[in-house]
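Problem 3 from the worked examples.
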Amino acid sequence: MNKIGLFFGSFNPIHIGHLIIAEYMAENSDLKEVWFVVSPNNPFKKRENLLEAHHRLYMVNLAVENDPRFRVSDVEFHLPYPSYTVHTLLKLEEMYPNKKFCIIMGEDNLTNITKWKNAEFILQNYPLYVYPRAGNDTAALKLPGDIHLVNAPHIDISATLIRSSIHAGKRVQYMLPPAVDKHIDEMGFYK
């Protein structure tokens, strides 16, 4: 059964940090593919500065369209808002019964997973592939489940930094995939 890593996010915008983590997971774990699950409305994030969902989905497609290891999913666009991971997982299992889904997340999300809707069910039924995030130490966490702490590179680029830099008129071209940088510039996003 193919193991698929689900990389959830607002991707506001998608940046090279996301792609480096996804590539690391595809090349250095037993995941066969990484699917970018674009969240139209994350219950833990404010909607301020959140670009419309269809624009973010388009930019994720621009970033990964030529890489067969990656796929983009808009499954949460068709589910009730706000988007809860447990609902997305169950929907994807219904749509793709021959695939085994796993969750890719940063250590910051792992430290907060007990706040997620149906967290216990998620921990019992879905392997987690956790990449390091600065300022987080999950070694002391005692969580049940199949949790893989992956020694992926520390990437200290954030979408917040990118948005605020663009707003301030600064260039961010090396933090973004070229097609995404060009699209953001042409559309005037985040200014």
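Problem 4, a separate protein:
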Amino acid sequence: MPSITEAELTRAIERTLVSRGKIPEPEARPVARMVLGYFGADDSVLDNKLSSEDRDRFYQLEEEGLLTSEEEDATVSRGKTWRIHYWLLKKARIRDVGQTGDAPPKDDAESVYRSIGEAAWQRRADAPPPPGA
């Protein structure tokens, strides 16, 4: 599958992390650049190459389904086993999210509260008590 472009990843970040309020919109492009800076032309990157701050951002992107992490065991000298953690771009998901015109659905509770008119939220001292009170 062809490489992910900065524009594709930026759009996917805008439609996931930004639309859910997890990062401000001006951070979308710098985050995309940071991620692609680690991956380069590869499809995977070793976890131990990440700074702790960048790793936190990778975990956020994993929660949104844009990245995934895997691990494998490797036998090294004297029979020792090392566990190697690495990250993978989920190219199909990034492209799917970046190409769809709709932002991900918002929290259902939020939409219910927003659908209630402003008048319903006003309390009046002269209002009759609610039924059964």
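Solution to problem 4. The domain at 6-121 is CATH 1.10.10 (Arc Repressor Mutant, subunit A). Helices lie at 6-18, 28-39, 52-63, 91-99, 108-115.
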